Fold this protein.
Amino acid sequence: MGITELELEVINPANTKKKEKVKFLVDSGAVYSVAPEVVLKRLGVRPHSKEKFILADGSEIIRERSDAL
């Protein structure tokens, strides 16, 4: 089994002219995709909520959520 990377465009859904190519590490079992915060800020994508996540070691973290294409 190897590591799979894809280069994808991240697009601001409120302004589809704002987009940027980003390399993603593919995790076929992931529920969410995670883009770098700096990229989302450059594109003008703003958080709309917060969500609690439980990590593999049982600890909990809270992260802001945004939507992008």
Q: What stands out?
A: The chain has a mean pLDDT of 94. The two ends are 28 Å apart (CA to CA). Residues 5-65 form one domain. The beta strands are 5-12, 15-25, 49-54, 60-65.
